[in-house]
Write a structure and sequence with these properties.
Elements (H helix, E strand, L loop, with lengths): L13 H16 L12 E6 L5 H12 L3 E4 L14 H8 L5 E6 L4 H6 L6 E6 L5 H14 L5 E6 L6 H10 L4 E6 L8 H9 L3 E5 L11 E4 L10 H7 L18 E3 L20 H6 L1 H12 L6
Bound molecules: phosphoric acid mono(formamide)ester.
The site of phosphoric acid mono(formamide)ester has 8 residues, from helix 2.
């Protein structure tokens, strides 16, 4: 699958994941390994939704590989504003680049886009669907801090609209991981994701309170309530601020608990947690560069796979 596009974490095998993570670790240890390898190649950044981490870390990764990036820019300043379809947009941009990174508000948009391009395409978030390159850096961070087998992970917050959650949950079915999902009833994992996890034989439990499971966890993955995806602001306000952790919450956690968050955060992790040894979310964001360097290198064929 990594020879082609990266659309969903559900398509990733354990071998695929380990290939990226091992390559990222080698790049992290010695960036000279790949320096200049993609000299003259161009990565197109097509972001129809806001981004800081994903966009900038892909840009940094491509430049560190020796390549360059071109950026579609804000939707309002592109021809999307004139009514150009996604199909036409990516069909044109693939002629300007060797690979595409696409973020779009519609679930399924990345898969649709692959029908119109031949160059590798990475799904950088399709609505509430998937965000698989985020998952690769999440797994890298988990592997570095807690290990990926015999893992007990709590995934908390907006499990309904959180695309990083859907991707991570799928990818973890490749490992010996017990997954605890903690959310208000209205933001449970979508039925289709629960079905996929069940079919994959995943060890899954659902909770409404973090206290029920906190003491068992190796990793706590906290997510933002995705305000922009709620059909009604009223529904958002009913759950906003409910799932928040601070140092008092973590008093009952194991000493070696790893706390992660894909970021951006709003108020779901209090700033006092940042100063504890639990906090790994900035390290997680920084891991986006070596992991995306490894991913791009593989997709562009630079590692001779
Ligand atoms: N984690 C993540 O996708 O962040 P951005 O929205 O800033 O890209």
């Amino acid at each position: 699958m990594l020879q082609d596009h990266l659309i969903s974490a559900a398509h990733l095998s354990r071998d695929d994941i380990e290939a990226v993570l091992d390559h990222a670790a080698a790049v992290d240890a010695d960036p000279d390994l790949v320096r200049g390898r993609h000299d003259g190649r161009v990565l197109a950044l097509c972001f129809f939704e806001p981004s800081t981490r994903t966009k900038m870390s892909f840009e940094s990764a491509m430049k560190r590989l020796g390549g360059e990036t071109i950026d579609m820019g804000a939707v309002d300043s592109s021809s999307v504003k004139k009514g150009e379809s996604l199909a036409d947009t990516v069909r044109v941009i693939e002629g300007y680049a060797d690979a595409l990174v696409l973020r779009h508000p519609s679930e399924g948009s990345a898969k649709l886009a692959t029908e119109f391009v031949d160059v590798p395409l990475v799904n950088a978030g399709d609505g509430a669907g998937q965000h698989p390159s985020q998952t690769l850096l999440d797994l890298y961070t988990i592997r570095e801090n807690a290990g990926l087998d015999d893992l007990t992970i709590g995934i908390m917050g907006d499990l309904k609209y959180g695309r990083t959650v859907h991707s991570l949950a799928h990818a973890l079915t490749n490992f010996d991981a017990r997954q605890h999902f903690i959310s208000p009833e209205s933001l449970r994992l979508p039925r289709n994701v629960r079905y996929d996890l069940h079919e994959a034989g995943a060890q899954v439990r659902e909770h409404t309170d973090i206290e029920a499971v906190l003491s068992e966890l190796d990793v706590l993955y906290v997510t933002r309530i995705q305000r922009e995806r709620f059909p009604e602001e009223r529904e958002y306000r009913e759950v906003a601020g409910e799932y928040r952790i601070d140092t008092d919450t973590l008093a009952a956690a194991p000493d070696d608990l790893t706390v992660m968050h894909p970021l951006p955060r709003v108020d779901e992790i209090a700033p006092d947690v940042d100063e504890t040894t639990h906090a790994k979310y900035f390290e997680q964001a920084h891991n986006g560069v070596p992991v995306r360097m490894a991913l791009l290198d593989i997709l562009l064929g630079g590692d001779d796979r």
